[in-house]
Amino acid sequence: RILIIGACGQIGTELTLKLREIHGNEEVVASDIREGADDLMKSGPFEILNATDEPKIREVIEKYNIKQVYLMAAMLSATGEKAPMLAWNLNIDSLFHILHLGKEGVIDKIFWPSSIAVFGPTTPKDDTPQITAMEPTTVYGISKQTGERWCEYFFNKFGVDVRSIRYPGIISYKTLPGGGTTDYAIEIFHEAIKNGSYTSFLDKDAALPMMFMDDAIKATVDIMEAPAEKVKVRSSYNLSAISFTPEVLAKEIQKHIPEFKISYEPDFRQQIAESWPSSIDDTPAREDWGWKHQYDLEKMTSVMLDGVKETLKEKA
Ligand code: VAH
What we know:
Elements lengths: L1 E4 L4 H14 L4 E5 L5 H6 L2 E3 L5 H11 L3 E4 L5 H6 L1 H20 L5 E3 L2 E2 L23 H20 L3 E2 L1 E3 L1 E3 L12 H11 L2 E4 L7 E5 H13 L11 E2 L3 E3 L1 H9 L6 E4 L3 H7 L8 H7 L7 H19 L1
Parallel strand pairs: 1-2, 1-4, 2-3, 4-5, 5-7, 6-8, 8-12, 9-11, 10-14
Antiparallel strand pairs: 11-13
Helix pairs in contact: 1-8, 5-6, 7-9, 7-12
The chain binds (3R)-3-hydroxy-L-norvaline.
The site of (3R)-3-hydroxy-L-norvaline has 12 residues, from loops.
């Protein structure tokens, strides 16, 4: 069976539903510190679980005979800056609990998400390579960079089959965003439909690597299903799909909602965005395990507008 820790988060929610579709509802146990979306809670087993609670993690793994763990729980870049030690402890302690379970042979495969937040102001901004200078300036980025080093260490020293992807900003409509710097690219769709206008907390030219949720879920499933020998990078793979600025995204929305207005009031998240790359080179992922994105800016924008309209109708 599969256990997803942090199953009620932005990625965890859709990852749980996709894995249940693939493996069967009863084969995928969802867990989080609080209950989540209806369709997640209704479609299969759920456990209340704090990702730093090692005894409880072991108890759940024992109870359901778990063999694979997707550790999706983390405190993201913006929230993490407000509670640095909480972010560090959550992001790192949870990873150690799972890596040790792998080392003991209790579980036999692990997915752990990294992020473009591992890059910093000294990283080349355009087409950032897989191996490059990485001096992250956020606690979240530091925790993900350290985590990558530990994943590679446990693979090399103990043969732990842990696989990882450096997610860009993920855009989706089924759940609200989780306290990241890229959240503007989700909020803008809700505001465009509800109010016809949006005040962006990033500047108009803040270019960031982004990806529609379905691409992120596909990449996660693909890397976990790839034969072990094809997963050559055991720190974490660069992954890329689209890159755009708030201004470019607003123009794309205006093709559907001509009267949509955007204004800019950069806050502390602008500095975080400026420390990250504008675009990513993900050649190794494409070559090693056949990664290919499906959603470009146009397709993502129209799917997001339809999806947000649908969720607003359901809530109405
Ligand atoms: C964040 N959405 O903004 C996350 C992600 C690359 C961005 O790690 O913190």
